[in-house]
Every structure is written in structure tokens, then in C-alpha cells.
Design a protein that fits this description.
heterotrimer, A: Rossmann fold, six-stranded mixed sheet, five-stranded antiparallel sheet, 20 strands, 34% strand, C: mainly alpha, MetI-like fold, 11 helices, 1% strand, globular
Chain lengths: 382, 304, 265
């Protein structure tokens, strides 16, 4: 297995998409996409269904043609080449294992097409890598979902592509198996050093595995970066909602200091550090993650380092195991969600309790856009 | 699923039959008894008749029971050219029908998949010949290619046909007619397997460095093999027994007579029942051989 | 991005040509139903509607047609009832000798018509049965049966057995469940099987020829007429049946595609 793995090292190539546009009759799947994925990186395209992520993957694989734009792999323009001429392999969502061939024949297929010497031993080695060597002679239908997924992975990896495309490859697996496969997939990627382009709608999966995550929406990349950074500072309403949960507050900027920007939400002042605000005047939205907020039964001291709103009433408490989730209704502001880690005490407050909510100003983030339905001055999005 | 193309396309049942017992036989028996009485027994009648000998009176059409196995040698001796001709025509027409049908079925089942209206329209047109009498269609061809037609005239004036050569009555014309008549029987089963063909297999082939031709040869063709096999059976068997196309009154002549024509003449015109039956039994044996081969390959579950 | 290529359209053009090939004799038959022919309908002698308006003036055509319709209806009813029962048993029940039953149902479809015809004729001969209307129906039910089974079976197989179980769970007796749940759901399959059986029966010539005796049917009329020239009235009947059948199929197809469009929206 290690022999096979070492053959891959430093073979990954970088992928560049320049001004990609893809139109279908009646709608535009991808608007204007520029993207660079460095060699050897695990890159995730994250978004809801219909956002254009699978189309992007199919364009890279050559299964669809872009309306305009260029695709470069390792600096070479491959836009006009057919799929079988591209140094790219795909792990398909449904695996697409050929039902009339054995597992081994499936894995050897690409090698045989390229007339590579000793396809069978190499295919067997790839199957060993995914720990399925003993099932080589079975037909794909005789394997479990997880096993089929690994065969699909071996079938793609064995060709040592410059770029491996993964189209929601774990989507069909149950939760437990999915987590296990995520770990294995990540381990294999680290071992072989290939460039992975992973398409998924599962935010946890993307954050867990990828070096870089690009959040796609309506044919555009909304935001791109390391998972921690994306989570810590979402720049749009969509990203703040799609990647985890957020409380959002909308108001007019009333104060713009050296350090921070503040808005007025029904008489409450909410601030965000200037460096974390996309917009600094007019009406803006400021958000905070529910686990960064806390509540108090007595009104705390006001301070310029802390945003404080309330009092409100606890209208729902949910016990989810690792944390308790409180929904707090604050008059004239709306509902705010607060997560409190479950550290052994039973709920510290009861339903109907009167509480204040606070969080550190440095945990606020200012968004570039506003929530779609801002009929009131503030809105909480959970 | 050999003949599934004739029904609606329903996916194979994933649920194993669960109920058992006498109800099954109550449902099955009337139909099965019917087939026993009017399908199986006639086959035995055919064998018995094929062994009969002329009765003492010597009148035409009167036979008595016997064990004249020599009837078989006699018909083979007299009609071996017809037997060979039947299978040769059937083979030629089946191959031609396959060559015409496969691309057509591929277009309807794969290329037209995203346009259900076009797909439906084309399917309707493929089965359209079923809605008009088989005999009228064959007569139409006869008249289109008749000796006075402009087709024959222009072939003659261009020198492709001699001035005393015609099309009707030739093996070419008979094979042409047979091919035409059975194209829908070839197209529908192939269509029904191609229609279920998952495009992602083809994409996976392309992704794994197979060009379009290789993808077709290594993936599309093997996956559509069930359709090809049932289409071939559905075409070859009726063609081997057909006697309309090869008949003198339709596209053929005495030189193109097939087994079916011999059986018809012997049975209905000169009333030589044993000879007609012996030939039918021989034809049936050849077909059973083919079906056995098919069952060995695919099992009985796929028959219906 | 790629250049226009002939290869891209080659398949479409090939398919179009194949379809045209399939339709030529139909168009020809239709056109010649308007031919102002005297006896044989071979060369074009001018357009007339007379053959359509006076189709029954030609001796024997309408009688043969009516006979074929009657035989078709009776055979279809019997074959559909027997075949539907078998189809339900095949999908829903476990029983022994399943392979033998499958084989028995398959063989009539795989037997050349001339063998089926000659076999049945031999049996009628040895039993001393007079050939006629009844023997034609016996023959037609026999070769339609398997096609009904195949068509209905596909429909039964696509039915979720849980629907019937839900019926039982909601206090339906077996008979009520069958008539209120199973049968309505199977109906589309049964109807298409019946249409297929009727088409097969109506167009059959070879088997009928062996077992008809003096009785005549529309195909038999055409076959007999072929020797001396088929009258244009036969084209009229063929064309009329064709138009009716195509109209039914098109209506069903357009309706289902509209339904599907609605569902997908």
C-alpha cells in the first residue's frame, strides 16, 4: 500500500477556473466563476442543491462544456478536451460502478484504457489500499454501500490523476459510516498528496475534511477560506446561515469610532469591531453565533466591550446532549438563540424566566448584505 | 423481461412474493389449463400427425396413425433448400433489423431522454406499423417496388438492373420485406434496456479514459445485451416461420419459398398433413434449441 | 465551444430515416385509399372519396371487418381475464414449479405462428372439430394470453404490496381489497394488455388461416384478394383503424406527459 501511495506524492496539480459561465436553456447555473485550487489541497465546494457546485465539478471533469471561460489543470488549458483526455478522475455520487464487471475489472478499467502495463496487479494494490483486496472478484451489487464507495475511490485513485473530483461521495451512506469514511478519505488524501475537489452540501463534512471551503450560492462563490475563518467571520447572510447558525440584528449605523461600528436596534446599541465589519454606514446586519452569546438572570454592568440586549423571556429550552439551546424572545428585537454547554448542571433557568443576553463585541461580525425579509428592524436567524 | 417492451415500463419488483398456497393455483389454473389444452396438446398432435401414414383408401387428405419416422427424412430430402433458405433469410433479416434498430433505439432511449414528448412521439411512430394490417403493409411494398414502378424503371435505365430483371420475387425483396416487418420487434426490447441505461456509467467510462467508441463497446453494448438477445429472438423466430413475405402473391416467388410456405401449401392446399407437421416439428425443434440456449444464459426469470 | 460536427447529428438523421422507412408503406396505403381504382388498386387513377363514403359497397370487406372486430373483442375479454389472474399469481404468490410455469407462458410467444397454426389445426382435425368462428377464437385467446400476462405483470410488479396490506389493516376483506384497491391500480396495465391483445387478434393472419375453415376475417380477406389485386376499400378500412389507434395512443401519451409536467412543477 505504501508503494502505491508514494507513487502519488507531488503528482497533484493545481486547478484554475477563469471566468467560467454555464448557461442552460432558461437559467444560468454558473455566473462568473474564478477559482484557484493549489496542488495537493483538499478543497470543498459547499452549497445547497442547485447552487451550481455539481455543474462546476462536471465542467472540470469535461462532462459538460462551459458557455464561456477557461479551465486549466497544472497550467495547461484543457477546456476543449474531452473527458477521456483529461488527467482527472471522479468518484461519482452514485459510484457508477459498472454492474457487468467484477470489482477488480472496474478498478483496472482506466489503466487498461490507457494501456498501462500490469493493470491487474495495480488494481489489486489499489483495492488493498482501501482494504477491499479480498472482495476483488465480487460484482459491485454484492457489496455494501460503504464498500462500493471505497471501490469507486480505488477506481479513481489507481489512475493517479492530477485532480480527484468527489461528487457527494458520502451522501448515500448512513451517518456513522459517513463519519468513518470522512476520516479515511482525509487520511488517504494526506497520504497520496493529491488535489481533491470535493462537492458536498454537508457543512460539517466540508469543514471537517477540507483545507479550504468555498460556499456557493446561486451560481456564485459567496465566500472562500479556511473552515475556521469562514465560521468565525461569515461575510454574507447566506454563509452565516448555511455554515452553522447565527443571530442577526439589523439597524442603522449610529456611531463609527476608531475601533468599532455600532447600530441602533430598537434603542439597543449593538457593536462590531471595525475590522470585522463589511459595511460601515447605512443599514447593516450584525451577527453573533449562538454559542458565543450568554444570558444573565440579573442585568449585568454595561460595558463598551460587551453587547447587551434585553430583558427578554425564555420561550423554549432544548436539550441536545452536548449543549442546551435556549430561545429567548426580546421585545422589539425578536428571538435570539443562545447555546450553553452542558457541563453537568440541569437547566439553570426555567421556561418563562426573565433574562438579558450579552456577547463580547469582538465576537460580532458585520455582514455585507441584509436578510431578505427585514420588515422589522431586527431579525434572528437560526 | 424479454418482452417487457410490449408492456409499460415498470421497474423490476423489489419485493419478493410473500403469499403462498392454494389461491395461487386458483389464479393460475384456468390459464395454464387453457395453454395445456390449446398450446401443448396441439404440439403433441403435431408430432403424432407427423408420423402418420396414408390410410388404406389412398384418398387425398386421409391418414391413419403410424410411426413413419421416414416422413422426416422425406421432408428433409424434398425441402432442405427451403429449410436452409428460411434460416438464411431469417439470419440476414435479423442482422439488418439489428443494424437499423440499435441506433434508432439508442436515439430514442438515450439521446431523446430529456425530451419526453419527442421520445413518446418517436416510440409511437416505431409501433405505428402495428396499427395497420401487416398484409396491407407488405402489399404496399410490393406495389412500391412493382415491375412498373419508377424505382424499378430507373434502376433499369441506370443499368443497375438488366431490362428483364425485376425486384419483386427476388430474395432481396423478401429479405427487405422481412426486415421491415420485424424492425419494431427488434427496436422495442433494445429500447427498453437502453432507456434504463444509467448515463453515469457512460460518464464514468469517459472519466476513466475510454473514448466514445470504447465506452460504447465495453459499457453500452454489454449493458444492452439483454435487449439485443430478446430482440433477436423476437425477430428471428417469427421470420423463420413467416410465409407472407415470401409468398408468390406478396414479395416472393417460387424461388423464394420458405418453410412456412411449404407448410401452408402442404397443409391447406394439398392436405399432406404428415409432411406439413414434420416440417413444423423440425422448425419447432430448431427454435427450442435457440430458446434453451437463451434460458441457459439468462435463466427463466428473465423470460417474462 | 466545439465546432459543428456532422457526427453529432448523424444519429438523429439516421433515426429519422429509419422512422421514415417504417412509415412509407403506411403512407402508401393511406394514399391509395383515395385512389379512383376500378378493380385492382395498383396504379394511381385519380383522387376520390368514394371508397371512403361507400366502403361497404365492395363485397365482403365490411363483413370481414365486422367479423374481425367481433372475434377480437371476444378473444380479448377471455385472454385478458385469464392473463390478469396469472400475472397476479406470478408476482404476488409463491408456488412450486415456477420455472415450468414461466416456460409454459413464454413458449407460445417464442413459437413461430405457422407451428401454432398447424398444431392447433392438427388437433381440431384429430378431434373432428369443424373449423370456424369458435376455433378462431380458441386460437386467438391462446396466442394473446402470454402477451397479456407480460403486460399486466409489469404493472403488478410496480405496485407496492404495502397498499394492499394497508387495505387489510383498514378492515377491508380480501375481496374488498381486491376490487377497491388492487383492481383500480392495475386497471391501466389491464387496459393496455387488452389493447395489445385486440391488436394482435385483429391483425393475425397466419394462425387464423390454419383454423378459420370457411369463416373469413379482415386479414384473410386481404390475403385472398392479394392474388387478384386488393380493392381500395381494404385500404380504407386499414387506414381508418390506423387513424383511430394512433389517435388513442397519442391522446394517452399527451395526457401522461402533461401530467408528468404538472407533477414536476
Amino acid at each position: 500500500m505504501h508503494k502505491l501511495a508514494t507513487e502519488f506524492v507531488a503528482r497533484g496539480a493545481d486547478l484554475e477556473l477563469v471566468g467560467i459561465r454555464k448557461e442552460y436553456p432558461g437559467f444560468t447555473a454558473i455566473e462568473n466563476l474564478d477559482l484557484h485550487i493549489p496542488a495537493g489541497e483538499f478543497f470543498a465546494l459547499l452549497g445547497p442543491s442547485g447552487c451550481g457546485k455539481t455543474t462546476t465539478l462536471r465542467l472540470v471533469a469535461g462532462l459538460d462544456e462551459p458557455t464561456s471561460g477557461k479551465i486549466l489543470i497544472g497550467g495547461k488549458d484543457i477546456t476543449a478536451t474531452k473527458p477521456h483526455e483529461r488527467p482527472v478522475n471522479t468518484v461519482f455520487q452514485s459510484y457508477a460502478l459498472f454492474p457487468h464487471m467484477s470489482v477488480l475489472e472496474n478498478v483496472a478499467f482506466g489503466l487498461k484504457q490507457r494501456k498501462i502495463a500490469e493493470p491487474m496487479p495495480k488494481a489489486q494494490a489499489a483495492l488493498d489500499l482501501v482494504e477491499l483486496g479480498h472482495l476483488a472478484l465480487r460484482k459491485p451489487q454484492q457489496l455494501s454501500g460503504g464498500q462500493q464507495q471505497r471501490v469507486a475511490l480505488a477506481r479513481a485513485l489507481v489512475n493517479r490523476p492530477s485532480l480527484l473530483l468527489l461528487d457527494e461521495p458520502l451522501g448515500a451512506l448512513d451517518l456513522k459510516l459517513r463519519r468513518q469514511m470522512q476520516i479515511e478519505l482525509k487520511a488517504i488524501q494526506m497520504e497520496v498528496g493529491l488535489t481533491f475537489l470535493h462537492v458536498t452540501h454537508d457543512q460539517e463534512e466540508a469543514m471537517d475534511m477540507a483545507d479550504t471551503v468555498a460556499v456557493m450560492n446561486k451560481g456564485r462563490i459567496e465566500q472562500m477560506g479556511a473552515p475556521e475563518k469562514l465560521y468565525d467571520r461569515p461575510k454574507t447572510v447566506f454563509v452565516s446561515k448555511f455554515l452553522g447558525q447565527s443571530n442577526l440584528f439589523v439597524g442603522e449605523v449610529v456611531e463609527s469610532g476608531i475601533e468599532s461600528v455600532s447600530i441602533n436596534v430598537s434603542g439597543n446599541k449593538i457593536s462590531v469591531p471595525k475590522a470585522r465589519a463589511e459595511n460601515q454606514n447605512g443599514t447593516i446586519a450584525i451577527g453573533v453565533r449562538p454559542e458565543k452569546a450568554m444570558f444573565h438572570e440579573q442585568e449585568p454592568q454595561r460595558s463598551s466591550e460587551v453587547n447587551l440586549i434585553g430583558p427578554g423571556e425564555i420561550i423554549d429550552i432544548r436539550f441536545t446532549g452536548v449543549s442546551n439551546q435556549y430561545l429567548i424572545e426580546i421585545p422589539a428585537i425578536g428571538n435570539v438563540t443562545v447555546f450553553a454547554q452542558n457541563i453537568g448542571k440541569s437547566p439553570v433557568v426555567e421556561l418563562g424566566a426573565k433574562v438579558w443576553v450579552s456577547w463580547k463585541v469582538e465576537h460580532s461580525f458585520g455582514l455585507a448584505d441584509l436578510p431578505a425579509n427585514t420588515h422589522t428592524e431586527s431579525i434572528s436567524v437560526v | 423481461m424479454a418482452f417487457a417492451a410490449f408492456g409499460q415500463n415498470a421497474g423490476p419488483s423489489t419485493v419478493a412474493p410473500t403469499k403462498s398456497g392454494r389461491v395461487a393455483w386458483i389464479l393460475l389454473l384456468p390459464g395454464l389449463m387453457y395453454l395445456g389444452l390449446f398450446f401443448l396438446t396441439p404440439l403433441f398432435s403435431l408430432i403424432i400427425t407427423s408420423l402418420q401414414v396414408p390410410d388404406a383408401s389412398g384418398e387425398i387428405g386421409r391418414y391413419q396413425y403410424g410411426f413413419a419416422i421416414e416422413n422426416y427424412w422425406l421432408v428433409i430430402e424434398s425441402y432442405w433448400p427451403h429449410i436452409i433458405r428460411s434460416f438464411a433469410y431469417a439470419l440476414a433479416a435479423t442482422v439488418l433489423a439489428l443494424l437499423i434498430s440499435y441506433p434508432l433505439a439508442y436515439f430514442i432511449g438515450v439521446k431523446a431522454r430529456r425530451r419526453p414528448l419527442l421520445q413518446g412521439l418517436m416510440l409511437t411512430l416505431v409501433i405505428a406499423p402495428f396499427f395497420i394490417s401487416f398484409l396491407l403493409r407488405t402489399i404496399a411494398w410490393k406495389q412500391i417496388f412493382s415491375n412498373e414502378s419508377w424505382i424499378v424503371n430507373s434502376l433499369q435505365s441506370s443499368g443497375l438492373l438488366a431490362s428483364d430483371q425485376y425486384l419483386v420475387g427476388t430474395p432481396f425483396m423478401v429479405i427487405f420485406g422481412l426486415t421491415y416487418a420485424f424492425i419494431p420487434f427488434m427496436t422495442l426490447p433494445i429500447y427498453s434496456t437502453l432507456e434504463r441505461l444509467d448515463i453515469r456509467y457512460l460518464e464514468a467510462g469517459a472519466d476513466l479514459y475510454a473514448g466514445p467508441a470504447t465506452t460504447f463497446r465495453k459499457i453500452t453494448l454489454p449493458l444492452s445485451m439483454p435487449g439485443i438477445i430478446s430482440g433477436t429472438l423476437l425477430t428471428f423466430i417469427p421470420i423463420a416461420g413467416d410465409y407472407v413475405n415470401a409468398s408468390r402473391d406478396f414479395l416472393g416467388s417460387t424461388e423464394t419459398a420458405m418453410i412456412g410456405n411449404v407448410v401452408e401449401t402442404n397443409y391447406l392446399q394439398i392436405n399432406d398433413y404428415p409432411a406439413a407437421s414434420a416440417l413444423s416439428v423440425l422448425l419447432m425443434l430448431a427454435i427450442l434449441l435457440l430458446v434453451t440456449f437463451y434460458v441457459k444464459r439468462s435463466g427463466t426469470d428473465d423470460l417474462l | 465551444m466545439r465546432k459543428f460536427s456532422f457526427g453529432k447529428y448523424a444519429l438523429a438523421i439516421y433515426s429519422l430515416l429509419a422512422i421514415i422507412y417504417l412509415l412509407i408503406p403506411i403512407a402508401y396505403t393511406f394514399a391509395f385509399s383515395f385512389n379512383d381504382s376500378v378493380k385492382s388498386n395498383i396504379s394511381w387513377r385519380g383522387f376520390t372519396l368514394d371508397k371512403w363514403t361507400g366502403v361497404c359497397n365492395q363485397q365482403g370487406v365490411c363483413e370481414a371487418f365486422a367479423n374481425s372486430v367481433l372475434i377480437g373483442v371476444i378473444s380479448t375479454l377471455i385472454a385478458t381475464a385469464l392473463g390478469t389472474m396469472i400475472a397476479i399469481a406470478l408476482v404476488r404468490y409463491r408456488f412450486r414449479f415456477r420455472s415450468a410455469v414461466s416456460l409454459l407462458l413464454f413458449l407460445p410467444m417464442a413459437t413461430p405462428e405457422v407451428v401454432l397454426g398447424a398444431g392447433l389445426a392438427s388437433q381440431f382435425l384429430s378431434m373432428g372439430t369443424q373449423k370456424g368462428f369458435i376455433t378462431i377464437i380458441i386460437a386467438h385467446v391462446m396466442f394473446c394470453l402470454s402477451f397479456v400476462v407480460v403486460t399486466v405483470k409489469a404493472r403488478v410488479a410496480s405496485l407496492d404490496p404495502a397498499l394492499e396490506e394497508a387495505g387489510r389493516d383498514l378492515y377491508g376483506s380480501p375481496a374488498q381489497v381486491f376490487w377497491k384497491i388492487t383492481f383500480p391500480l392495475l386497471l391501466p396495465g389491464i387496459i393496455s394488455a387488452a389493447l395489445l391483445a385486440f391488436a394482435l387478434s385483429f391483425d393475425d393472419f397466419i394462425i387464423t388461416n390454419f383454423n378459420a375453415g370457411p369463416e373469413t376475417t379482415f386479414p384473410k380477406f386481404v390475403y385472398t384478394a392479394a392474388a387478384r389485386g386488393i380493392p381500395a376499400e381494404a385500404n380504407v378500412i386499414g387506414s381508418a383503424v390506423f387513424i383511430l389507434a394512433i389517435a388513442i395512443v397519442m391522446t394517452v401519451q399527451i395526457r401522461t406527459s402533461i401530467k408528468q409536467k404538472r407533477l414536476s412543477k
